[in-house]
Amino acid sequence: MPNVEFPAHSLSFATDPGEALPLHVTDADQLEDWLDGRSEQLRAWVRANGFVAALGKVLLVPGADGAPEMALVGYGTESARARGRFHLAAAAAALPAGTYRLEGLDPARAEEEALGWLLSGYAFDRYHEQQGAAARLVAPDGVDAARLEVIAAGEALTRDLINTPANDMGPDTLEAACRDLATQHGADVSVTAADDLLVQNLPLIHAVGRASDRAPRLIDMRWGTCGPRLTLVGKGVCFDTGGLNLKPGSSMGLMKKDMGGAATVLGLAHMIMALNLPLRLRVLIPAVENAVSANAMRPGDILTGRNGKTIEINNTDAEGRLVLADALTLGAEEAPDLLISMATLTGAARVAVGPDLAPYYADDPALVAAIEEGGVLAADPVWRMPFHTPYEALIEPGIADLDNAPSGGFAGSITAALFLRRFAGDTRYAHFDIYGWNPTAAPARPKGGVGMGARALLAALPAALTL
Questions:
Q1: Residues 207, 310: contact at Cβ < 8 Å?
Q2: Partners of 187 in beta bridges
Q3: Catalytic positions
Q4: What are 234-249's pLDDT values in tens digits?
Q5: How far apart are CA 29 and CA 78, in angstroms?
Q6: How many whole angstroms from its chain centre is CA 457?
Q7: Separation between Cα atoms, residue 298 and residue 319, nearest integer Å
Q8: pTM assigned to the model
């Protein structure tokens, strides 16, 4: 079993507030009011530096000895804040190393900003020296610091897994990461690999991964002994060449992130287990590499899934829904209270909503309401997409029960979700079709792998499962 070597991340709050420098958070339209009653020297310093409390801008204020005695951070205007999130993470990146305590921040924004500050400390430096924000924050009053540290650690795990290139993150390494996580939390892991997939009736996972010299596998992790049953299924395609329908180079360059669904599920699993939520968790990850070889599946092949449905392979690059299909069937057989799949599945979803929203599919009104509220509470934006039943005909090719890649290009994300729903049975089900990558650096989110939807789901679980 390969080693999983991730950089160490210190995403935690400062524990000694005694030496913390006050960091005053000021709206642009309230700066003059804040300056009233301050010393003339402070007012002159602010004006001389042109500080107007623009969003995320910082100003260190020296004391009599020249050392900083406080810092100011702009909180901009309401309209400026509406165009993003984690605004104080920009300040964390701009401030020198040290410990800071927030003053003047609206308590309603404290949790979001504190989490963003923690996440600003992340940097993936396994292959190249780099550093996240060095400024430490004292946890604001009223914030559950331990919970936010757990969430930040889960997000860091997701980012590390996605950022690691395929030469160091194959199906075997993904298994090792699952085993490490299970050891950390006292969970159990079983793995079905290579030809044993056929013996255990997981033929679609085998078909997608058999062309690689790194054996395909189904990773099954269980944790918890009481409470409702939650099953998470994450697409673990560690690299996607497209198979015989080979991707062009421009489309293949980011395919190390095609296991982003598995990475996000594992980050969420860490949060659930570390917070000791009262539920029974199962995590299913079909881990494969979609490679090209003489034994690769071919366009036109008809495969049979675990549930007996036949599938015409009209594009070998639509492989994610195949491996998820077997895993969903397996998960649904246990009749969990909630079944959730996450995948970096379709370019259609990326085109529809861009890289910053996590599109999801769900029909249950209570589950939808919980996810929508969770997205707002966790500053993890989601967008509901429709399980549009009239499009079912598009995934029925006639020669087989299902088509893995309908022609015509219409509603690609919806048809993929409808395909997956055929394997979830009657289970209460939601599917996330995420991008898993931040193409441009933003506060608390450097360019690279990123979790999407996990925090929203964590916030939704108490209502969704009546914990």
A1: no
A2: none
A3: 247, 321
A4: 999 999 999 999 999 9
A5: 10
A6: 10
A7: 11
A8: 0.97
